[in-house]
Amino acid sequence: MRPRAGSRVQRSASACTLVEARGGWCTEREARLPSESREVCVQGLLEREDELDIIQAAVGALRDEHSGDLLIVTGAAGLGKTSLLAAVQAAARSAGLLVLAARGGEREQGTAFHVVRGLLEPLLGPAEDAERRELLGGWHDIVGAAVGVAAGRAAPDPQGVRDGLDWVVTNLAFARGPLVLVVDDAHWADAESLTWLAGFAARVTNSPILVAVAYRPDELPDWADEFRRVGDDNGASLLGLPPLTPEGVDTLVRELYPDGSGTAVEDAFCRDVWAVAGGNPFETVELVGKARNRGIAPVESSWPELRRLAAETTGSGLIARLQQLGSGPLGLARAVAVLGMVTPLQLAGDVAGHGPTEARAALDVLRRERVLTGHQILEFVHPLIATSVYRDIPDEERTALHQRSARALLEAGRSPVVAARHWLEVPPRGDARVVEHLREAARLFMQAGAPEAAQRCLARAVEEPPPVAERARVLFELGCSTLLYDPALTSEHLRAALEQPVIPTHLREQISVRLAQSLAHSDDLARAAAIMRTEASRATDPAVWLKMQLWNFMWGAFDAREEGSRERSVRLAELAERLYTSGDRSIAARYVLGLRAWDATVRGEPVDLALRYSDRALEGELRWAHPEWGFEVPVLVALTYMYGDRRERALELFGQGIAEYEQAGWRGAHLAFGHTVLGFVHYRTGDLADAEGCARWGLELADRVGTGTPVHWYAGATMIAVLNARGKADEARALAARCRLHAPYPNAVVVPDPQTVRGALLLEQGAFAAAEAEMTQAAARLDGHGIHNPGLSGWQRLLVTACARLGDLDRAREVAADQHRRAERYGTLSGIGAARRSCADVEPDPHARVTLLDSAVRMLERVPAPYERACALTELAEALDAGGRDAVTAGRRAEEAAETCSADALVRRARAALSRSADAHHPGSSGGTDRSSSLCASPELTESSAT
């Protein structure tokens, strides 16, 4: 019977760290021990029947039903976690399942994706290139560097690598599995692997994957909260390991003192072993093994000798015993402790300063004393011993060992990534070679999608320090390594780079652009624009001047509190017209034209002008994933088409852009932004259900990036607007509270405007005075920034409604008329149709109101604006009904339109108007249920002459 999901096994019995000698289980680590060092466990793991039942049930369900599970084994050091994971592996291999196993290492925690590589290396290492590409699929170039099989062509963001690893492992499970994924000593896993594992393990229950992970709870790092919670509420089986019972120790001691040893094992001796070792399986095995090897009789009188032996197992007693073995064994043990797990004997001997013969002799001693295991590949018998040995090394000697280790690894042809963790332990000495090694390691970490690991290397390189001529470049590289996750820290590094005495001109330009970008991402757009304005004034090269001008214009355009907005717009228009007339097709020129198209859209200039500049900007490549030019202008060009009633072109550009992000591995803020704005495009021009799907995915991606970031403002505001339009008011309000949709609003221009979205929520709640106040503030802010396009800002429609509900009809009519004037100036049918809805809202003459709404409907039928059309049709049906006229046909059209675009709230309003009109004008009719009636407009409605 399979255990209940989420159950915790917490009993007084536990496993012992034992191996399979006669049919019992053994750990992978202990399986490498020589046969004389393998201790016997009675028929496998002692006192672990329940745990083994859970393991067998999980493996059986995976084999028979392809049903995944998550097993989490926790406990202090030495309690048998590794043995239990070995039981998982043995059961899985017996069932013919694919098993991938790895473990964290105390010394390897700083090496990004160390555990991930350990999991996948057995499959990827021996494979030919074609097979590797098949295993990695379309993610080859994104995760190749992380898994150690290919150098990355560009630096993917960390989320892109995690998503790629999700796909690779899941694909393995379906193609070659079912799959059992085993991770031991997860508390020592590197940050990148542990972060990936936390996200992946929480979702395995729907895949043919069994994840078994073991760790010491008290030694998980503080930042690993996501991993610490991975077993909560997802059906995981949580196996906690307490010490062995006295009965279990009694059984174990008698097995370790087999019949024929010459002396009967006394009960008192077994109790003494239990008391001395505290029921810890590892310490019990070590203690009894040493006692037997030294000829200590298993009798009560051996108590004093047991205590002396226990002191030698770990800690100071172990160190004292090592020191008694001589300088050769002690030096080799220290070298292995510094180098870490799975250390080649030759490498350890080189670091220890031993020749081959001396190293072999030292190893024989350490194997005999149960300190190290292996012949050519060395490891400590238990991580507890490794920890004790490493911590005992004097500081000066430890530094020297790390330095020798780094050099030995590089001389052996190992990657700078492997050597980097040793350089991080060596104090700065002004060695230019160390700087270059650390920079190379940082470059490889960036290609692997591990910017934080790169940042550690570059920060250490700065401390070395680099030669004066290289300091600005190293600081620039350090700033770039933190840009994705800490723009504020990036600004600090880049400002320091600009203060260096030697900066090549081209490098200064790169530093300035990145500094402005980091400030913009920190919501300091005014300073970003100012830096670019300064650099433009310094530039002597026309191409550089144009690039700096572009960035100055762009960060100003995104600054919602920009001073001198009108002047910037005039300068941009003049520059764009010169470039357009000159026929300049450089990338900088086309970006300027694209930015001019957006500025024209924002300011509500004629739409044909905006589209003319957009078309010219796209006469060449505008890459969304360009590492130098950024994604902002290509997105703005796509939005220009959306606002210009060119829906298909906008969707085409967004589809291409999102595909670029995914191919480049940009699956963090960039991909979140792409899906979010695509959702907004659907909201404005398509089905609200599609809009909600895209926006929800964009918000999920933005949540992974972090709240308070620019992309989270976009995602939250878009999702709330869509939910509100669909009639999901409660969910919209809850999300608004979570996203803190209230003042202070961000400095950046956000689409849709968060304050306007909040105003719509307030109107929905009937808080008309609060909505009027918010929209009045929004009007001053947006108009002050030159955002005059009514389709872009949206505050006028909401202010009209708020003022009308508050009884201020004069102001409502004034705002509606202004909205209509602006819409006609911009010239899109969708904008004019929406404006006529506002005018109809405050029109006192019922017949004139119907005429305005009919005009709006006919306009909106000619453009891709189904939600706006559904709103106009619903209001038309309500206006006809309120005027005592037959609204059945209009109501049916409204209901159909609202259903087509998934506007649930509008469906209810349309049905209500239809039902009232049917009751009044067609007694006994079926009202909204009759689909046979014509959906044509009522003949009495007049057609607008507006275009």
From TrEMBL:
<dbReference type="InterPro" id="IPR011990">
    <property type="entry name" value="TPR-like_helical_dom_sf"/>
</dbReference>
<dbReference type="InterPro" id="IPR041664">
    <property type="entry name" value="AAA_16"/>
</dbReference>
<protein>
    <submittedName>
        <fullName>ATP-binding protein</fullName>
    </submittedName>
</protein>
<dbReference type="GO" id="GO:0005737">
    <property type="term" value="C:cytoplasm"/>
</dbReference>
<dbReference type="GO" id="GO:0005524">
    <property type="term" value="F:ATP binding"/>
</dbReference>
<dbReference type="InterPro" id="IPR027417">
    <property type="entry name" value="P-loop_NTPase"/>
</dbReference>
<keyword id="KW-0067">ATP-binding</keyword>
<dbReference type="GO" id="GO:0004016">
    <property type="term" value="F:adenylate cyclase activity"/>
</dbReference>
<feature type="domain" description="Orc1-like AAA ATPase">
    <location>
        <begin position="45"/>
        <end position="211"/>
    </location>
</feature>
<feature type="compositionally biased region" description="Polar residues">
    <location>
        <begin position="928"/>
        <end position="947"/>
    </location>
</feature>
<keyword id="KW-0547">Nucleotide-binding</keyword>
<dbReference type="Pfam" id="PF13191">
    <property type="entry name" value="AAA_16"/>
</dbReference>
<feature type="region of interest" description="Disordered">
    <location>
        <begin position="914"/>
        <end position="947"/>
    </location>
</feature>
